[in-house]
Amino acid sequence: MTASDAYWRRARRLTFFLLVFWLVVTFGLTWFARDINEVVILGFPLGFYMAAQGALVIYLAIIWWYNRQMKKLDAEFGIEET
């Protein structure tokens, strides 16, 4: 296996893992919305907070993690940008 093959295998694995995590968060919040809404914070159901801000924060965390891991991967294989 060449270095290029190893790089792309790891990049695809990272992308697939984060995509699955995104799907679990997105559809998990929707699927369990009634259960989540039983928790009330400051008079609003938790589902409201998760829809308004919580999911967006999780999506930003996914993007941050992807960027961080890809920079490490690029540095490991010597193809980082200067």
Describe the structure.
With 82 residues, the protein is mainly α. The protein has one domain. It contains three helices and two strands; from the N terminus they run ααββα. Helix 1 packs antiparallel against helix 3. The longest helix is centred in the C-terminal third of the chain and has 31 residues, at 46-76. The chain starts with a helix and ends in a 6-residue tail after the last helix. The mean pLDDT is 90.
The gist of it:
Helix content is 78%, strand content 5%. With 82 residues, the protein is mainly alpha-helical.
List the helices and strands and how they pair.
Layout: H1 3-31, H2 33-36, E1 40-41, E2 44-45, H3 46-76
Antiparallel strand pairs: 1-2
Helix pairs in contact: 1-3
Contiguous uncertain segments of 5+ residues: none
Sheet with the most strands: spatial strand order: 1-2
Largest sheet: 2 strands, antiparallel
Per DSSP, the total helix count is 3
The secondary-structure element order is HHEEH
Rg, nearest Å: 18 Å
Descriptive keywords:
78% helix; single chain; 5% strand; 82 residues; mainly alpha
